[in-house]
Amino acid sequence: MSARFTGRTVLVTGAGSGIGRAVAVAFAAEGASVVLSGRGAAPLEETRALIGAAGGDALVVTADVSRADDVRALVRRAAEHFGRLDVAVNNAGIFRGGAPLADLPAEDWQALLDINVTGVLHCLQAQIAHMRANGGGAIVNVSSNLGAHLRIPNVAGYLTSKAAVSALSRAAALDHIRDGVRINAVSPGASDTTMSLHPGESAADRTARMKEQSPLGRVSSTAEVAAAVLYLASPDAASVVGADLVVDGGAAA
After folding, report:
1. DSSP conformation class of 31
2. CA atoms within 13 A on the CB side of 140
3. Which of 174, 190, 235, 245 is exposed most, by the fewest CB atoms within 10 A?
4. In CATH, which superfamily holds the domain spanning 9-247?
């Protein structure tokens, strides 16, 4: 295992499960001190236990990304505890779907915007403010292949929110690269998380479905998505600015 992030502090939102947990564990395995954030403490503690069992160092800080004050306090706590903040991964997000646009509940639309879009904005603003005052850093936003890259029926609100994340990432990258803050996005497709399961579908059912639906013939593992995130955050990607790396087995090709 390489140690690309030894001596670095990495903040991961939505770190209590799925892609966020895989990303946090992968950074810790490469030497980073990791700040784990989410709305509930219990799942974050489970992630911290995984990191600790492997000899890593992690801090749990609960925060709601839809609240700007929470996010500013999160960034401040991360920097105070570990003495620096070098990398941030904005992974927190929700999925709402199952109805055509005309029948999309207003509360679902608002929740998607509040968490998936405004939440990323709050994170970017707090993280960039800290990084540009402290020597720079790298930020990776987790978007989706659904939105800017691919559309499917009955998820208009989610598509809109994730397309906004892709656009926001590129805009922020242009605005702040001269501040020493390098910003990119990763857009996963169906991965090995509960979010990719259809209602009432088992993992075995999903495996059979993906053999037919995906050019690759399977979902991506969370480790594969995490590898893309770590690449974009690493010195190996020093000249990669404003990229939106799709990791979806060819679904949006």
Report:
1. T
2. 33
3. 235
4. NAD(P)-binding Rossmann-like Domain (3.40.50.720)
